[in-house]
Fold:
Amino acid sequence: MAATAVRGRSKLGGPREANGLIFASGSEPRSAGEEECGKEIGGWQQVALVGCVQSKQRQPPATIQLTVKSLLRRVQELAGFVIKKTRLVGAKRKRRIEVHLVADPRRKARCSHCEQACPCYDTQPERRWHFVPLWNLPVELVYAPRRVECPQDGVVIEHLPWSAGKSPYTKAFMLFLARWARRLSWKETAIIFGASWDAVHRSVEWVVAWGLAHRSLAGVSALGIDELHWGRGKKSANFLTLIYQIDLGTRRLLWIGRTRKEATLKQGFTFLENARTGFLQGIKVICSDMWKPYLKVIATKTSGALNVLDPFHITQHLNMAVDAVRRGEQGRLSRAGKVSVKRGRFLLLRRGTRVLGHARATLQAVLRSLRQTSRAWELKESFRHFWTYRSETWAGAFLREWTTRALRSRLKPMRKVALMMRSHHDLLLNYFRAKRLYNSAVVEGLNNKVRVTLSRSYGHRSFDVLQLVLYHNLGALPEPEFTHRFC
Structure:
């Protein structure tokens, strides 16, 4: 049977020949002596086989050669600019890809402020911008920017779609580094992608600034306020004031301030109110602890919101009171020469229903040997029933009865906690007025994320860097959109 006849032409206008074979464009190699008996019609090629029935076959498309130019045009917006050349320069271990750009003569330059077409004023010296690495090779964009004469803004630099002001890094590269900085420490990110720590810092700073300028504060109705220790020592400057949004389905960091004073929280409320007019009026619920400066500012600035006291800190106060009673009683028995069961401190602080097995027997032995501690522990465990109520009325009746029992217990630490709860009676009942939907569990979970974020880089000495890190990881900030998402 005769061979198939195919019509095809090379890039130069005719079939190309290699080793006695003709390579048709988009077809398989065929013998140079094959007979051509078909013709091309609309991308289809009619092929005849001698002694066989004629048939039609779809010719495969020609192979596309991918170049750095075509790849860059697909991942980076270059409207108004043309890639003149790309080249690989540098020594063996310091190689980099240079992409030289020139202005498109068919388009006018645009103002970098209003982005309107303007006449060209002059041309500045050549600049370089770092782009996302390709196959672990640094990529640099090289271009001599022009200045334009804008009727509104005067003589300014032209609009460059890849540049952010005077930064030597492209927008795509800064967003690329910032996204990796969420997963790794800044130092690790810089080492892996051949950048510097300062490059990562500038990238995160630019992304956070853009996100804060474009984030929406609409629909925020629930806030969580808490303080967090930072740095060394217990000075006021070593604490942070954190304001979270804790609405159902949306939990993020809204503001962070240094110290935990009244002025700090007022500054945070003022910042959020300036960002969105009427922000404080839309707040319905605020979860906080019993820190007096916070309670005072919340009552002044957001009088229409329910201030829900978190169960976590109240349980913490009860545990501290039980531990104080235990230490005092064991100290008196020790001085009197009497023996008491030890190794029960942490068993007393745990929830009673979670102490099982041999630990339960040890706990019972401790309670039998320490009578005052046993009464304090019973008061602590009985108060857990307060959080199970659904009715505000019955919860209030239980709270009044419990505080009366605690005041009559003749245990000074428990009396102190009872007086504190009696003074915050209405605030404790706000938990039930808010239908038990909001508590401190969300706030403490976000605080734990803050600690994990700080431990990733073993802490930060500068408050400004700490602020960037927390906004970047917990702020749920929007990011600028580009042609391609690199990670």
Observations:
- Residues 1-53 have pLDDT under 50 and may be disordered.
